[in-house]
Structures are given as structure tokens and as C-alpha cells.
Amino acid sequence: MPALALAFAAIGTQPAVAANQAAAIAPAGPGYADLADLVLSAPVIVDATIRSATRIKGAEAASVPPGQQRFYIEADVTALVRGAGGVPPRVGYLLDVGLDARGRAPKLKKMRVLLFARRVPSAPDQLQLVAPDAQLPWSADLDARTRAITRDALAQAAPPVITGVGNAFHVPGSLPGEGETQIFLTTSDNRPVSLSVLRRPGEQPRWAVALSEIVDEAAGPPQRDTLLWYRLACALPDTLPDASTDQLQGSDAEIAREDYRFVLAALGPCGRARQVPTANT
Predict the structure, then answer these.
(1) For a tag site, which of 144, 211, 219, 244 has the least CB within 10 Å?
(2) CB 54, CB 165: distance < 8 Å
(3) Stretch among 28-42, 201-215, 231-245 having the lowest mean pLDDT
(4) Vertex 219: Cα angle to 230 and 152 (nearest 5)
(5) Predicted pLDDT at 165
(6) In the chain, what's the furthest Cα-to-Cα distance?
(7) Other C-beta atoms within 10 Å of 15: how many?
């Protein structure tokens, strides 16, 4: 099994990942945030059917967590969802799977799966899963959601990665209870992103997000379970940092903090359920 040696040689440089290639996932599939985490961290996404699963024993399985078994998987590629340059028609990778109450591993052969992976540079036909749960049972719904997130992430106008909160400003209006708050966000590529909250007497506050230096008055909040919603809901801190309001008077600073809380409540929770993080790119 020469491919197995190559897989271990390449993956062994990242033991924290290689030692925990598990396949646990809720039957209903991951929520938007969990799936987006996988999609955004995976340079290669493959729809494949497992051809063979060979159990690995001895020293090469010494790091397998209790209650799991390690397998070398060979899978036939059905479709390439993401991956510049393509992949061979058959790929191999390492996988740790949980055992049932009787200590048995699940049947893997002929299972159709979605793989979220990276290439092994020294072996073109080898992949490395990006997280312990980065093999998911294929379903039409999961495939469609994965492709949608992939398209959004690769689009030219894809929202940037939010890295923090910059300055906040509040401008009171001419009437009591009237005013506008603008909160600037920091991003990984320095593209401008800002939140604006508009308050008018007798009306519910309205908020919007702008992806340019000009705030479009017709813009609104992002729809839930979209990439822009994910970027905000899963990255914004729970409270407005004190440094963001350093330039504001006391009352204006408090209104800015209140408006920030309003935005977070409107976004709702990120909803991550996975216990194993992936790199968010």
C-alpha cells in the first residue's frame, strides 16, 4: 500500500489534525455557520464514493483517540465542487471514525461523501481532511448548500473577513430620540465595511451594512444564512470595544453601544455547533 506511506509522510507534519480525522456529524447535517467554516477552510471539496477502507494498526495508529479507529480510505471522485487544477479520479486520505456501543466501526465502503480537504503536496492523489469532521455523508441538500456557499465565497464581490471593530460615531438628530450611528469594521484585506443604525421618533430603529465607503440609503441588513450574515454574526465581539467610542461624548457613546447591541440582536446567534475549529479564510 505505497499510497498509505505517502499519506502519513505528508500528514505527519500536522499531528494535531492528522491524529483526529473523525467522521462524526449530526444526521441532519451541519448548520450554515458550521458548513461555511468547512467550505472556507477547504481548498478542495470533493463528492466521492468510498471504494475501500483499510484499518490501520500499530504505531501508525498510536495517536488515535480512545473509542475510534483509523482507516486509510480510497474513494472514487464523482464530482469536484472546488479545487483549482482538478483532482485524480481516485483519491486517498486518512480518517478516524468513532465506534458504536459494541466497539464496531461503521460501514464505510460504498458510502457517498463530501470531503473538505487540502492537497498533500508530495502525493497528487492524496488529500488531508481540514478537520476531524470534514467527511460528511452526501445528500442532495448538503451538496446544494455546499455549492451555494462555495459560489458566494469565490465571487468577486464576496464579503471580506471581519477582523474587529474600529471607530464608532453617533450624530444626534434635531428631534429627541432621532440620530444615526455608524460603526466601522476592520477587515483582513482592508476593504471598507460599516454598520449604520438610524433612529427616528416613534419608529423602530433601522440598520444596514455597507461594503463600500459610501453608505447606500437603500441598503438593509443581510439575510440570515448568507455569507455576509455569517461574516458578521460569527465575527463581531459581544460588546462594542471601549476604544471604538473614545472620541464620543458620554451620552453619544452610550447610544452607540446600544445601537451595536441592537445590531447583534438583529443578526442573531452565529449558531456554531461543531466542537473542532477550522481555519476561517
Answers:
(1) 144
(2) no
(3) 201-215
(4) 35
(5) 98
(6) 77
(7) 10
Decide: 18 and 129 in contact? Cβ < 8 Å: no
* Across 168-184, average pLDDT: 92
Give me the phi and psi of 10, to 5 degrees please. Answer: -80, -45
Q: What is the separation of C-alpha 49 from the centre of its chain, rounded to a whole number of angstroms?
A: 24
What are the DSSP E strand ranges found in 139-192? 162-172, 179-187
Class at the top of the CATH hierarchy for domain 2-154 = mainly beta
Residue 181 CA to residue 189 CA, distance in Å, equals: 24
* Amino acid identity, position 114: L
| Residue 4 three-state SS | helix
φ/ψ bin of 86: left (φ > 0), alpha (ψ from -120 to 50), beta (otherwise): left
Q: Where are the domains of the chain?
A: 2-154, 162-267
- 15 pLDDT exceeds 60? no
What type of residue is 142?
A: L
Residue 1 has pLDDT above 70, yes or no: no
**Element housing 39 (H / E):** helix 32-41
CA pair distance 86, 108, nearest whole angstrom? 24
Residue 79: other Cβ atoms inside 10 A: 12
Q: Contact, 161 vs 178, CB < 8 A?
A: no
Buried-exposed string 132-145: b where 16+ CB fall within 10 A, e elsewhere: bbbbbebeeebbeb
Cross-strand bridge partners of residue 183: 168, 195
Measure the CA angle with vertex 212, ends 188 and 150; round to 5°. Answer: 55
Coil, helix or strand at residue 163 = strand
3-state secondary structure of 114: strand
Q: How many beta carbons lie within 10 A of that of residue 223, not counting itself?
A: 8
Cα Rg of the chain, angstroms: 23
Overall size of the chain counted in residues: 281
Alpha carbons 179 and 171: distance in angstroms, whole number: 6
